[in-house]
Amino acid sequence: MIENSELNVPQDLEKCIKFHGHLCPGLTYGYLVAKEAIRLLDIRRSEDEEIVAMPENDSCAVDALQVLLGTTAGKGNLLLKDYGKNVYTILDRASGRGFRFSRKISCRNDQQDKVLKSKSLLSRPFEEIFSTEEISASMPPYARISPSEPCAKCGELTMADKLRQGQDGKSMCIPCSDS
């Protein structure tokens, strides 16, 4: 097995590999998209919700977006739309600008050559791999912050705006209201 230090990759990609666990084409795609978004939008890693990432898949690429762009589900600025498409939209709240990146090339996913394929991707011009479109997108709302209240059935604390009214008028969490 090749150690990360033997890969001779950029330091910021090393951080992505450390977070993700290994180097693969999927992680590399996310790395490339994040770097291009940083360049085009002239942004830094998001401390709060300044940057929004909307990947249209749940692939390895999402991990690179989290590391480099600071987008996470917990902060509410990683909005996963799992359509299975190799498309990534990155928005900058401060400028109101956004870009949609759509992968143009296909890469077979065999475990044996994933490091070589990743290194090959890193050496290619971005525009060979992705099409880029500046978009005018309405910014998604900021993450909801809602007080927690106990479910009338199970007693577990639940975001108040996620509680549902049961037939008896009591507020219940989604799993309890569905049962």
Describe it for me?
Helix 2 packs parallel to helix 3. The protein contains 6 helices and 8 strands; from the N terminus they run ααβαββααβββββα. The strands form 3 sheets. A 4-stranded antiparallel β-sheet has the order 1-2-3-4. A two-stranded antiparallel sheet has the order 5-6. The protein is an alpha+beta fold and 179 residues long. The protein folds into 2 domains: 4-135, 60s Ribosomal Protein L30, Chain: A, CATH 3.30.1330; 148-178, no CATH class.
Give unreliable regions as ranges. Answer: none
Rg calculated over all Cα atoms: 20 Å
**What coarse outline follows from CA principal-axis ratios?**
elongated
Helicity level: 25-40%
The count of β-strands is: 8
N→C terminal distance: 48 Å
What's this model, at a glance?
The chain is α+β, with helices and mostly antiparallel strands and 179 residues long. It has helices at residues 11-20, 25-41, 61-69, 114-122, 126-129, 174-178; strands at residues 51-55, 87-92, 97-103, 130-135, 148-150, 157-159, 164-165, 171-172.
Which tags fit this structure?
179 residues, alpha+beta, 60s Ribosomal Protein L30, Chain: A, 2 domains, four-stranded antiparallel β-sheet, two-stranded antiparallel ribbon, 6 helices, 8 strands
Question: Secondary-structure map with pairings?
Answer:
Elements (H helix, E strand, L loop, with lengths): L10 H10 L4 H17 L9 E5 L5 H9 L17 E6 L4 E7 L10 H9 L3 H4 E6 L12 E3 L6 E3 L4 E2 L5 E2 L1 H5 L1
